[in-house]
Amino acid sequence: MKNLTSFQQRIITGIGLLALVGIIGWIDNFLLMWAFLGVIYIFAFYEAMKLFDLSSSSAYFWAVLLWLLAYAYPNPDDLFFLVAIIFAGSIAYLHNFDKRLL
After folding, report:
1. First vs last Cα of the chain: how many Å apart?
2. Which pLDDT score, from 0 to 100, does residue 72 have?
3. What is the reported pLDDT for 4?
4. What are the C-alpha distances in Å from 60 to residues 9, 29, 47, 55?
5. Which of 64, 41, 54 minimizes the C-alpha distance to 99?
6. 67: how many CB neighbours lie within 10 A of its CB?
7. Cα gap 23→17, rounded to integer Å
8. 49 near 55, Cβ under 8 Å?
9. 76-90: string of b/e by CB count within 10 Å (b at 16+)?
10. pLDDT class for 97, splitting at 50, 70, 90?
11. For residue range 26-85, what is the model confidence (pLDDT) as tens digits?
């Protein structure tokens, strides 16, 4: 991999990830899909926290709790509104509005 350019590494990584997503889709197991998307969700959450220079250990707890709740909740689409209500309530209660949190 050291001799490859950055673009070539990205192409190989993209092909590998597409193959992984294809295999997971082909297996068609709910638990496997939930776990795979959850791991991607946690990595994306970590990257967003770094990108916006936010540091809150409790945010990771709530992110993982939301991921676990999505497994058992019968209609996970409703969880978006639940999180929005909790977020708005915490901003109203704590009075610490930061644009980066949105």
Report:
1. 38
2. 85
3. 76
4. 30, 26, 12, 10
5. 54
6. 19
7. 10
8. yes
9. eeeeeeeeeeeeeee
10. low
11. 998 989 988 998 999 999 989 988 888 877 777 888 888 888 888 888 887 787 788 778
Contact 24, 33 (CB under 8 A): yes
Rounded Cα gap, residues 71 and 30, in angstroms? 9
| Measured CA distances, 59 to 5, 7, 29, 49, 85 (Å) | 36, 34, 29, 9, 16
C-alpha–C-alpha distance, residues 48 and 58, integer Å: 15
For residue 67, give the amino acid letter.
Answer: W
Residue with tokens 């909740």: 73
Q: How far apart are CA 8 and CA 1, in angstroms?
A: 9
